[in-house]
């Protein structure tokens, strides 16, 4: 697989020199600095992309905003047809694009392919949705009046995505936004610029075939470009996926201009394992949740609260499972865990484990960076003291580190799980209906996602995805998340010959 990396990149059209990372219904000549894409498996350069300068970015937003005037008037089901074509192209290029995700980001190939599948799924969902952007009809208090609610496109949406899902999170946003009648400007992570070029090439094809060029635009850039978006009053909505500290800044800046932001920030996801749990399921779910994507999902499992009667056995089983994790080139079929995405991530992994040791945590297995090229680490299992005394577990470290805590009962587990400031995903393993229902009740998990007998990661696109508290409150993908990309209009229509005023007011 690795022998023909150049063939792969050429096939996706992302190799030659330092291609432009700026596209708005045709590729523009980018004039910003070059961004280097680094292969996390070897530590060597994969390619370069020229990023958007401030002028380039402005040109993209101007073009996109002009495009909005006609796109919003195309009937939603016709807009859906364009997204359907994009979904078809993604099906055709699933292997190549999934492999590129794996190559550039470092997740294993099966997860790279799964990420592209997530794009295909959301395209399908959006196509159906394009005939269901429904409003309500409401009874008016006045005779011969009717009230209704309708949803209109919002405008130009800024979409900022993270390195860990370099293509799927973009798709969640833009497939929905496009059928809603919005135009989008995408700023991908500078860690994965080649993925964004490959995707944009498919966008260009699908949208050109339907005379819809310029609806989905690209401006590759770093933190500067993110800040331009946050401050840009031409963007009524900025969808941001990334860390809590950066999300906090984005939210404040967007709020400062009274724009809307849709935030998908960090998680600190826990799995509760009760004494009556099916251990086979729990061990598999925890291992995938903590080790999958090398712990670099916002939904990755970071904490386990094991009830006293089962904690010993669970720990033993997890230690055994961790020994079987084959670390290596993510493109090799038998690999279960690839490298971290960047060198800095390795340093953060090491720092977190140092803190864990200083605070009384005991590393049960793993815990070292591998002595080989690239950014490889071992998945680490840490037996932790009480959570109150263990500050490192309150933070999200984007790495395969799992903290194991022991708890007495379900109430203690729920309290500990909810004690942190993040609120994305959560899960419980139990065979007790009563315990499961308590966990899902208003006094249970405070997260945006709460699962029973499945892990914290790997959500399907049909549900609304997002979390509470410092995770930012945004909801993307399925259910009624589309409403975030539209503006609601309440209309009252008088079909009578009188003009009665509401609330019985007389004015004559
Ligand atoms: C993310 O990590 O930013 O639920 C998104 C999951 C994936 C999406 C994760 N479907 O793990």
From TrEMBL:
Enzyme class (EC, first level): oxidoreductase
Molecular functions (GO terms): aldehyde dehydrogenase (NAD+) activity
EC number: 1.2.1.3
Residue ranges occupied by any Aldehyde dehydrogenase domain in the UniProt entry: 27-490
This protein's UniProt keywords: NAD, Oxidoreductase
Active site: 264
Keyword Iron included in the entry's annotation: no
Gene3D superfamilies: Aldehyde Dehydrogenase, Chain A, domain 1 (3.40.605.10), Aldehyde Dehydrogenase, Chain A, domain 2 (3.40.309.10)
Domain of life: Bacteria
SUPFAM superfamilies registered for this protein in UniProt: ALDH-like (SSF53720)
Keyword Nucleotide-binding: no
InterPro entries named in the record: Ald_DH/histidinol_DH, Ald_DH_C, Ald_DH_CS_GLU, Ald_DH_N, Aldehyde_DH_dom, ALDH7A1-like
Family to which the UniProt record says this protein belongs: Belongs to the aldehyde dehydrogenase family.
Subunit comment: Homotetramer.
Name under which the protein is recorded: aldehyde dehydrogenase (NAD(+))
């Amino acid at each position: 697989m690795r022998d023909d990396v150049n063939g792969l990149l050429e096939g996706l059209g992302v190799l030659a020199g330092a291609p432009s990372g700026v596209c708005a219904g045709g590729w523009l000549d980018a004039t910003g600095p070059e961004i280097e894409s680094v292969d996390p498996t070897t530590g060597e350069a994969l390619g370069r992309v020229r990023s958007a300068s401030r002028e380039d970015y402005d040109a993209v937003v101007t073009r996109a905003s002009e495009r909005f005037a006609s796109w919003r008037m195309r009937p939603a089901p016709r807009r859906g047809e364009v997204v359907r074509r994009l979904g078809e192209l993604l099906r055709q290029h699933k292997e190549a694009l999934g492999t590129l995700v794996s190559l550039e980001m470092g997740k294993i190939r099966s997860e790279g392919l799964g990420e592209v599948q997530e794009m295909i799924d959301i395209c399908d969902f959006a196509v159906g949705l394009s005939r269901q952007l429904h409003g309500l009809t409401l009874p008016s208090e006045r005779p011969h009046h009717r009230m209704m609610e309708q949803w209109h496109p919002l405008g130009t949406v800024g979409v900022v995505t993270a390195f860990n899902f370099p293509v799927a999170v973009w798709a969640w946003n833009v497939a929905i936004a496009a059928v809603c009648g919005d135009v989008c400007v995408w700023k991908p992570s500078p860690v994965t610029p080649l993925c964004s070029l490959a995707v944009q090439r498919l966008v260009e094809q699908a949208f050109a075939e339907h005379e819809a060029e310029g609806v989905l635009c690209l401006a590759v850039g770093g933190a500067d470009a993110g800040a331009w978006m946050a401050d840009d009053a031409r963007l009524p909505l900025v969808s941001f996926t990334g860390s809590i500290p950066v999300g906090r800044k984005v939210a404040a800046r967007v709020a400062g201009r009274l724009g809307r932001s849709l935030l998908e920030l960090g998680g600190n996801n826990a799995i509760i394992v009760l004494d009556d749990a099916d251990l086979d399921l729990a061990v598999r779910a925890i291992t995938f949740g903590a080790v999958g994507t090398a712990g670099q999902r916002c939904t990755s499992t970071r904490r386990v609260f094991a009830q006293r009667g089962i904690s010993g056995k669970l720990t033993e089983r997890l230690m055994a499972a961790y020994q079987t994790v084959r670390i290596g080139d993510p493109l090799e079929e038998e690999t279960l865990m690839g490298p971290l995405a960047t060198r800095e991530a390795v340093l953060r992994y090491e720092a977190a484990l140092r803190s864990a040791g200083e605070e009384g945590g005991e590393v049960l297995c793993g815990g070292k960076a591998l002595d080989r090229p690239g950014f490889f680490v071992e998945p680490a299992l840490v037996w932790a003291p009480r959570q109150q005394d263990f500050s490192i577990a309150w933070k999200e470290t984007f790495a395969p580190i799992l903290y194991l805590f022991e708890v007495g009962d379900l109430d203690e587990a729920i309290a500990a799980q909810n004690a942190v400031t993040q609120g994305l995903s959560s899960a419980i393993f139990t065979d007790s209906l009563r315990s499961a229902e308590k966990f899902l009740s208003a006094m249970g998990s405070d997260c945006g996602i709460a699962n029973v007998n499945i892990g914290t990661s790997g959500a399907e696109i049909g549900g609304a995805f997002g979390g509470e508290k410092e995770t930012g409150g945004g909801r993307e993908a399925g259910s009624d998340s589309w409403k975030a990309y539209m503006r609601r209009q309440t209309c009252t229509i008088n079909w009578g010959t009188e003009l009665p005023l509401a609330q019985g007011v007389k004015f004559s």
